[in-house]
Amino acid sequence: MSLKKASELTEGGIITEAGNASEYKTGDWRTFVPEFVVENCIQCLFCWIYCPDSAIAVDLSGEKPEVTGIILEHCKGCGICAAECPPVKKGKAALVMVREAK
Ligand code: SF4
Ligand code: SF4
Fold first, then answer.
1. What CATH fold (topology level) applies to the domain 26-99?
2. Where are the domains of the chain?
3. For 59-92, what is each residue's pLDDT tens digit?
4. What CA–CA distance (Å, rounded) separates 27 from 31?
5. Are 47 and 81 in contact (CB under 8 A)?
6. Which end of the chain has the smaller Cβ count within 10 Å, N or C?
7. Which protein residues touch ligand 2 with a CB less than 6 Å away?
């Protein structure tokens, strides 16, 4: 891939095409990653609401939306989803942050 010249770059902070964030794979610099334990999930969708990167995978094909996991290409490892995930299954939460193996 050849580098762009300065004159070819867009100015900082300008979004030239609305809704193009999904094209940018930005999940490779995190240190921690959420681990999804499906049997502890009560499908409250708090993680989906709070995730700042739309990195929660949700299946919309059924009667109700259902969290199915984490989209690691976009997850930054911020831990907000795990902080909001309620530990209601015998004190265990469905999302727990763990150090990512590199
Ligand atoms: S760690 Fe942060 S970016 Fe990753 S899924 Fe959770 S809230 Fe989203
Ligand atoms: S916040 Fe936790 S319990 Fe609620 S949907 Fe997300 S993973 Fe499941």
1. Alpha-Beta Plaits (3.30.70)
2. 26-99
3. 999 999 999 999 999 999 999 999 999 999 899 9
4. 10
5. yes
6. N
7. 41-47, 67, 84-85, 94-95
